[in-house]
Amino acid sequence: MGVSANPPGDPSGKVAVAKLEDAARLARELKAPGGGAKFVNWARKHSLWPIPFGTACCAIEFMGMVGSSLDISRFGAEFVRFTPRQCDLMIVAGTIVNKMAPVLKKIYDQMAEPKWVISMGACASSGGMFNTYSVLQGIDRIIPVDYYVPGCPPRPEAVLYAIIELQKRISEDPDPLKSREAMREKWIRGIKGRGLTPKAKLLLGKDGQGK
Amino acid sequence: MSDLLDMVVSGLMERLGERAGEVVHNKMGTTMRVSLDAIPATLDFLKNYKECPFDLLSDITAVDWSQWEENTGLKGPPTRFTLLYNLYSIQTKERIFIEAAVSEGQKAPSATRLYASANWAEREVFDMFGIKFSGHPDLKRIFLPEEFEYYPLRKEYPRTGYDPQDFPQE
Q: Domain tally for chain A?
């Protein structure tokens, strides 16, 4: 009975060598300039913690996405938390009425930086079929949105696609904190250009700067 | 109409006398018109009617007739609003509607002393139509934000509100 250096299931040692080569490549990449950020982004994109802001039927579709048949955790966004302070991805799933708008804004503000928002479904993106006095006509009037997922409600696969696209964006982002800030400034300029509504003024403050 | 409901209606007419109005039967059921000041007496009578107690107040709602004549060409009621009480008897499975005319600014008597469920129903009518109820313990808006200034189910209120900036212009 000789003692083998190779792990069980890999008698020739080819897999172990390949893994070592992978590790060596990763180490080389980390040593190169910008490698630290690359590593952080790699970790960040595979550990998105979503907070579901579910107010209507889209939230049911969200449950289907979390469930075992489609399984959001395959993409590294498993840990659905119900407190904003532990989350970095907000999925707004459902109709937001004007009475709910300040609550949404408050919860968004409580999330730690860097943070991303996916607007799930027609209602959250544009008010949907509720073109009435009581419904907010799109959450981008009060918070910046990264991805809009169309549908009423959207298929869970569509939201998974948005998450995969978001992960691509995160892995290519050299400095998420900086780019988030720039994106928010662009958004504020955008809604100011459209004209701040009295409701938005109430939520964003007089200068429109949010917090 | 069942014999039991017939008995209830005739008993109610006797009790109210002049304050009772006409009785209408249609597909929806039986509706009885009474004057506004007779509402507490009517509800009290129906709730405590021995053979058929209407112990469940299903709903209170209202109708705004203000643009009825322009839109339909038909003659509407003389007052602006109609209050509609929807009462159900759990034991006998009978249902009756009570209608009362309310003009603008007139206060309706609250039914909260008889039915606890009238509390939220009356708040909804106040929220949507602006009809006030005297004797209600906590008459404030129930669905809309408290700073909201209008009564959206009144006919003159536009569907998208008075603030067009909040809506995309086509």
A: 1
